[in-house]
Amino acid sequence: MGLRDLALALLLIGGLPVAFRRPFIGALVFVWLGMMNPQRYTWGFAYDFPWSKLYAAVIFAGVLASKDEILWKDSIQRYRIMLLIVAWAAITTVFALEPGRAMNKFVDVVKIQLMCLVTLALLTDRARITALLIVMTLSVAFFGTKGGVFTIAHGGEFKVWGPEDSAIRDNNHLATGLVMLLPLLYWLSTIMRRWWLRLAVLGSLLLCAVSVFGSHSRGAFLAVAAMSLFFLVKSDRKLLAIPLIAVGMVASVFVMPEQYWERIETIQTYQDDPSATGRINTWTTAFRIANDRITGGGYEYYSPRSFARYAPNPEAVHSAHSIFFQALGEHGWPGLLLFLAFWLGVWWQCGRARKELPAGPEHDSMRLLLRMIQVSLVGYAVGGAFVNIGNWDFPYYLAIIVLAVRRLSATADLPEPIAQRAESARPTVVFGNVRLH
Q1: Would you list the DSSP string of 314-329?
Q2: Which of 104, 123, 161, 241 is most buried, by CB atoms within 10 Å?
Q3: Are 342 and 81 spatial neighbours (Cβ–Cβ below 8 Å)?
Q4: What distance in Å separates the CA atoms of residue 335 and residue 85, rounded to the nearest whole number?
Q5: How far is it, in rounded angstroms, from Cα 310 to Cα 69?
Q6: Tell me: the pLDDT tens digits for 354-402?
Q7: pTM score, two decimals?
Q8: Which of 385, 389, 403 has the alpha carbon at shortest distance from 348?
């Protein structure tokens, strides 16, 4: 047993009673485990121990035993399209081309979506929304910050990879995740009260931007370009936003070697690139499966047997390499329509929540957050068009944050909710600038 295994085990086991008594704190730990995968930095029993499942079980038990307000009915109503997607996925799993692999993936997806629903029900005030943003954002920013330092130290010659056995292990997947992260880090920098914390977050933002280039991902390059333009439009602090984008671009030009820019230029000649033609092959495969089977191929249909039946080039067996063709191939046309309906609904909810927030400077932070989430979703849509991260937890936690802000905007429960409970006898957990009761 290594020291890392022992330290992590003591930390997580010691946190179980807290997770039972305070389910939202447990939900934050669950998000940390899913986003950062700290167990992958151990080498003993802790590496493969099912920490997330253990915490999920304790959180569910704590929720059932809790006497605090848990917004089940409202959360189910707001999350209904995703629940329809899960129900449809259950049907497509029954008729999957690779039943065993599909069932394993379906169980993972159900776990993620159930925890998203539970977390949404626990997001009862602004402090909890902010705490969730901090945990999920900094958990992924850890890899971007580390990757940015690595890229600078090695002159951009080597690719930056994500954590082992995670949805963002691949360099392209990590790059898309980091692209989504940039506007959220920008928002975090605006709410930090201490100057050194603000500088630390902005430094992490710039290193994450460098790490995106260090991934050598052409899809992420396109996502950065599209998102940067939208970022300028959505940001109400352009005097800060413009220098940040300029510094990130200039730094990348000086850091990245010539062969990187030669790779980026191949976007214009995709027909001569094996990677691009491989993507087109998998997209065509997904299209043919959806046209042949209303239920699609089910999760993880990517096998020689399936490609021999549907692919133009049966020898090139790859995953869908696109969140849109992933939904189409795995769940057919109904699955793709539900997927698009969900994310278009999240986008619409962002706009509605901004309009419904009461007037006043105390709500400016939430308005900016909603704008930055829309910027992040642009990165998800453009970068995700070339990678297979349709089931990654991160964007779905963003979605429930939008739904929670919309819920709170209708009740005007956003300005300093903690003050309303200042006389509470319950203990307070301090998390950065956020206090959780």
Answers
A1: TT------SHHHHHHH
A2: 123
A3: yes
A4: 7
A5: 50
A6: 888 887 777 888 998 999 999 999 989 988 888 888 999 999 999 999 9
A7: 0.85
A8: 403
